[in-house]
Give the backbone structure.
Amino acid sequence: MKGVVLAGGTGSRLHPLTRVTNKHLLPVYDKPMIYYPLQTLVDAGIDDILIVTGGSSAGDFLRLLRNGKDFGLQRLNFAYQEGEGGIADALRLAESFARDHSICVVLGDNIIEGSVREAKQKFDKQRRGAKILLKEVRDPERFGVPVLENGRIVRIEEKPKVPASGYAVTGIYFYDPSVFDRIRVLKPSDRKEYEITDVNNSYLLDGHLTYDILDGWWTDAGTFESLWRAGNLVREKALSATPAAALSAWIYVTRRLLMRSEAAMPPFTSPQRATWTAASRTPLLSCVAT
C-alpha cells in the first residue's frame, strides 16, 4: 500500500495567515501541520508516500521535509496541483504514483490521537473497494456525514445543513486502484469542485464501501477554531506522557540515593541502625509520594 497526503488548496478560511504560506506549514503546537498526517502514514507501516501540494509555497515543503529522513523514510514524492478543484481533483494527480497499488489518503490538516494501522490491516484483507473512518463530532455539518440505517451506511451527504447523524467522515480514506476511474467520471458539484464524497458514494452504490469508527480523538485544523483545538489536543497528548516519565526517573534516582545512604551508614547497634535507616528514608519517600 502507498500513502498520499493532500496538502493543496488556498486555506482561505485561515486568512490572513495563509496569505504568506501554505496552511499545512502552519504550526500545530510544536510541529508544522504537515508532520502529523505524514506520521499517521508512517505509523501505519506505509513508507512510499506522495505529497500533493500547490500554490507559491510548494517549494517550502521540499525545504522542510527534504527526503523524509526525519520520519525514517528514504525518499518522499511530490506532485503539484494547479488551481483548486477539490479533494478528488487533487487525488487524481496520484494516479501515476499509485499505479496498481491500493492507497491510504490523508488530508493534510487531519490530526489523530491514535493509529490507523488496524484499519489498514482490515482493508488489506478486504482486497477491493474502499474503507472510510468515522468519528462522532459536535459539528458534523462541517463535514461529509453518513446516513446510517441499522448500522449500515446508505449514503453520505456533503456538509448537510441538517445532519442525519452525529458522525463525520474523517479525512482518512483507503482505496483500491479503481478510485482513479471513478474520479474520471465525476462531475463538479454546486461548489464547482470534484467532491471526495461523490467518490465514496460511488463505492457505496457498488456495495464495496466499508467503515470503522476511529479510536481516540480526531480533528481537522482548517479553521481558526479547529487549529486552536488541534494545538491544545496535541499539547495535552505530549504533556500527558511527561508526569509518568518524570515519576519513573524520580523513583530510579530515589532508589539509588537510598542504596548509597544505607551503604554509608555508621556501625550502629541494631536498634540504632533501624532508627537511622527509617529516618533517612522518610524525606525521600515523602518527595516521591508528593
About this structure: The chain is about 40% helix and 20% strand.
